[in-house]
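Hey team,

Filing this mostly as a record. A colleague (T.K.) asked me to run one chain through the structure pipeline before their review meeting, and I want the input and output archived in the tracker in case anyone asks later how it was produced. No errors, nothing strange. Just documentation.

Input sequence:
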Amino acid sequence: MPQLDQFTYLTQFVWLCVFYMTFYVLLYNDGLPKISRILKLRAHLVSQQSGAKAFLSNQDVDSALFPVQAALKSSLSYLYSSVSGASKWCSGAQHSLNANQLFAMNKSYLRSLGSEAVSQVIKYSALDASAPITFISAPLAINNLNEIYILRVQRSLLSNIKTKKKKKL
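Output structure:
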């Protein structure tokens, strides 16, 4: 990496110091005196205005606050109306989406749940006909039950295929 080279790093550091010192000298000689003059002038003008003008009376403050309060009330009512309108639109869109587009998907999901439940019932009813089997651990028992079920289904499918072939001949 050339940035970490000693010579390149040294030159970058030297140029950084040169630019920093130049900026510091310019700011010290030109910028700070102008800023201090502006601040002194501002302090002088503020002291003259506060001496010449008394504080505003309560009537002036109340008359100035009335339009602000009216504007705040109207903006608050507009905000409430827009939020309630958006809420109504969201609930309507959600209802129409659930009624129209998601109804078929929900029906398909319920159908798949039902077929899964029926297959579980069929599997356990097919295995109940066999002799009771005892296993040491539950995961091993479930795995073995699934293997037995798969073997029985394969056997029944093969026998169905063989009987269909014999009927055709």
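Quick notes for T.K.: The chain has a mean pLDDT of 78. DSSP finds four helices and no strands in the chain.
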